């Protein structure tokens, strides 16, 4: 069989969830695929018993690998990646249930743009949950009109993620420095971004995720999360929060939005406030850019209130609004944000007259993280 996709399912304990996951993959997958099940040294004997009896069908072939030790998420997935060879690879947790057309849509959207490297499906993980009287499949049918549409993400989440083969060939496997679980998927996304790829959410594909179910039995969970976060932030820096206040017109604001995508790709959450509404039907949305329309008369007081009262303070405020700039400079003791004036095109400067280009914001991100 020639496979279009290798599905790497990482198994650990939870036999009932595992069974639901495997059955959904065999029933709902129409793409010619190989399901590579990597069991991460489950102690529950019923897991091996179940997996030993699983058989594929005319669309999905099954291959099993029983690891002698728990290699963590990255290590377990890498065992499967080393066996894979299809043009697409899909990582899948054992606490997921897939729906009709899930994989076809992930692959279809991935093919839309050469820059797309990693693809998440829509999910309850991203806030789309079945209502009280809906099944998981009902929820999937509800978004069927969104097939072909996608939103750019700052990074993928590894519970269910499609990866193009060329990405793996360029940046390699997941980094096993992240022991246990956590941050390895974000790290991989940012490496892919540095290699010229973006991560996206396929809005018309749905996978339900029983979140944290596979992590409940993880020993020393908080220690693992803390250690992995330290490794990640030493490599990539902390998450930035930036407010951009625009005085531009409609079409200019849409161009501004496109420019700000570059900033969001530097691991930044961007709040974009404008006096006119943006028609985002003309572009691909970015999940880490929040948009707010606000009238000219309310702009300055509303911005000041937001900046000063925000619990997670902004690292930077970017604007060319003269009155706002003056007030922010006077009130810096309260908000602590670095203030940047948009003075020419997409160039910004701070109070020390240091100039940065929003079209190429790597230096700005380094500066805000203290990597001057």
Give a description of the structure.
By secondary structure, this protein is an alpha/beta fold. The protein is built from 13 helices and 16 strands. The protein has helices spanning 15-28, 45-52, 72-81, 102-110, 136-142, 165-171, 184-194, 221-236, 250-264, 296-309, 322-330, 332-335, 362-368; strands spanning 5-11, 33-39, 60-66, 88-93, 96-98, 116-122, 150-153, 160-164, 198-209, 240-245, 268-274, 289-293, 316-319, 338-344, 347-349, 355-357. Strands 1, 2, 3, 4, 5, 6, 7, 8 and 9 form a 9-stranded mixed sheet that branches. A hairpin with a 5-residue loop joins strand 15 and strand 16. Helix 10 (296-309) packs parallel to helix 11. The longest helix is centred in the middle third of the chain and has 16 residues, at 221-236. The chain is elongated and about 70 Å long.
Secondary-structure map with pairings?
Layout: E1 5-11, H1 15-28, E2 33-39, H2 45-52, E3 60-66, H3 72-81, E4 88-93, E5 96-98, H4 102-110, E6 116-122, H5 136-142, E7 150-153, E8 160-164, H6 165-171, H7 184-194, E9 198-209, H8 221-236, E10 240-245, H9 250-264, E11 268-274, E12 289-293, H10 296-309, E13 316-319, H11 322-330, H12 332-335, E14 338-344, E15 347-349, E16 355-357, H13 362-368
Parallel strand pairs: 1-2, 1-4, 2-3, 6-9, 10-11, 10-13, 11-12, 13-14
Antiparallel strand pairs: 4-8, 5-9, 6-8, 7-9, 14-15, 15-16
